[in-house]
Amino acid sequence: MQDMVVDPGAHNRAAWDKYVQEGNEWTRPVSTEDVERARMGDWSIVLIGREPVDRSWLPTDLTGKDVLCLASGGGQQGPILAAAGARVTVFDNSPRQLGQDQMVAARDGLELRTVLGDMRDLSAFGNAAFDVVFHPVSNVFVPDVAPVWRECFRVLRPGGTLLAGFLNPDVYLFDHEALDERGELVVVHKLPYSDVTQYSAEERATKFGADAPLEHSHTLADQIAAGFVLTGFAEAPHQSNASAPYMSHYFATLAVKPG
After folding, report:
1. Which one of 48, 71, 81, 239 is CB 3.0 to 4.6 Å from 138, fit for a cystine?
2. Is domain 8-168+216-256 given the CATH code 3.30.70.100 in the classification?
3. pLDDT tens digits for 61-79?
4. Long-range CB contacts (< 8 A, 24+ apart) of 169-177?
């Protein structure tokens, strides 16, 4: 059933560009008021779900810290961190998502760099270039997550931190239509799951829409970044999902590159 010609990166780039045009929740930039509050030290950003990330997971003082917002375009986290004093680079696969960050930076006078690319290839950056990598729920859009962690480890300085959010793979066990239409938890998929291998292009178009991003689940073994020291863990529900009463949908890890 696998599509032999589908390019997940190219497909998802177009999908997220379209999301920006449609005003998807994760493409809406922060306001000038949000930026001004961040300049005064009053700020929060989201790593999983809609709850602010624990501020203790980030440096107490961001001034002069080099932060990579990885697959984190949309004019949300990057501008806030820049307003809080960090030297921010936003790296994303979608030109329109990066355009949201560029718009906020120009509007509010922020110094912020944007780089277009695939999260599995950070060759645009040298070794030990960043103090923090902030990686919200996005590796669901690549079929293999190991290269993401290898690159994060390479670009982080010793003692640097990786904040990563990801989906609970169990979310993908269930039949999409039964869950959304009737609230029934009907197990139909074997894990790890992939839109590309589970459905043909025609089936995907019928179930999710032809332009929807391609998603892939990853095992928990793959999600725990090898080589890092895990120092924090959090989880959160997806309030609008019918399976929310039964499981956490989002996990987050705080990991440190050994010094």
Report:
1. 71
2. no
3. 999 999 999 999 999 999 9
4. 169/193, 169/217, 169/218, 169/219, 169/220, 169/223, 170/247, 171/217, 171/238, 171/241, 171/243, 171/247, 171/249, 172/215, 172/217, 174/243, 176/207, 176/208, 177/207
